Amino acid sequence: MSFLDPLSHVLAALIAAAHVGLTSLGADPTTGTTWLLCIAAVVAAVRVALLPLVAHGVRLAHASARARPQLQDLAKRYPNRTDPASARRHMQERRRVAAEHGMPRLGCLPMLAQLPIWLALYHVLAEVAAGVPVGAMSPELVGSLGAATLLGVPLAGRGYLGAGAAHLAVVAGMAVVAAALAYLTQRYLVATNTVTDGLPGPVAIAQQMMPALSAIGLIVAGGVVPVALLAYWVCNSVWTLGQAAVIWRWFPTPGSPAASRPR
Questions:
Q1: Pairing mode, strands 153-154 and 149-150
Q2: Whether the Cβ atoms of residue 102 and residue 59 lie closer than 8 Å to each other
Q3: Which residue has the higher pLDDT, 34 or 126?
Q4: Which of 35, 56, 38 is CA-nearest to residue 46?
Q5: Of 48, 96, 230, 233, which one's alpha carbon is 20 to 30 angstroms from that of 170?
Q6: How many of the other CB atoms lie within 10 Å of CB of 94?
Q7: Nearest Cα residue to 121 out of 246, 239, 255, 256
Q8: What confidence tens digit (pLDDT) does each residue in 24-55 have?
């Protein structure tokens, strides 16, 4: 029994419901296209449910950017002062600035609530692709997904090598698409919508490396995960790109390159 089991069962029910809905509309229940549409439907449902957390993250980024100059000034006023009185005054000043700019008390904690959802979805797709029933994904549905193919490549298949050129082309193509989308999102939308002034050197360097690291990570992982999970990554990357573009265009972070571009 895992703490992710309740979430996994909810997500499995979403996949099964999407399959029932599509087949009731006349889709072939055994084809890879139907199962890919099921995965896309689940991605859309999960991402819509997470929109309130996305809005929280945007508000937090804006409030933090507005408060940054005052917080930097406070850091200069209390350099290396560790006595209890100074530490208490410093914390009180930081709280005052946070309240003045409307910084949420919970900070980034609501955003971290997304992690169990991503882990549970990974667990469901990996287990189902391996032929293991999960919740509403009955043995019949699991067998149907296991037999489904994309351009002749089983959705339950894994790895780049050992199954012929067609398998390599499909798996590598999906991994490269997911990696390219992740790189574009991080490099041209997220990075340009982030305020880096005043960040510690290692943090700034890590942010600069993030686009390449994200892309490389997806390509490496593409060689070990099921094709069904690669399909999820592609769909999720498309949504993330569109969502980041909307935030970049209409809700840029104050002080970021995105906010200072000509309109």
A1: antiparallel
A2: yes
A3: 34
A4: 38
A5: 48
A6: 17
A7: 239
A8: 999 999 999 999 999 999 999 999 998 988 88
- Dihedrals phi, psi of 87, to nearest 5 degrees: -65, -40
pLDDT band at 110 (very low <50, low <70, confident <90, very high): low
Dig out the tokens for 138 from the structure.
């009955």
Neighbours of 18 (CB within 10 A): 20
Calpha distance 15→260 (Å, rounded):
42
Point out which residues pair with 153 in neighbouring strands: 150
Report phi then psi at 39, rounded to 5: -65, -45
- Cα 136 to Cα 12: distance, rounded to the nearest angstrom: 6
Place of tokens 């690669």: 230
Tens digits of residue pLDDT in 178-215: 999 999 999 999 999 988 776 666 767 877 888 999 89
Q: Is 253 exposed, middle or buried (0-12, 13-18, 19+ CB in 10 A)?
A: buried
Residue type, 158: R
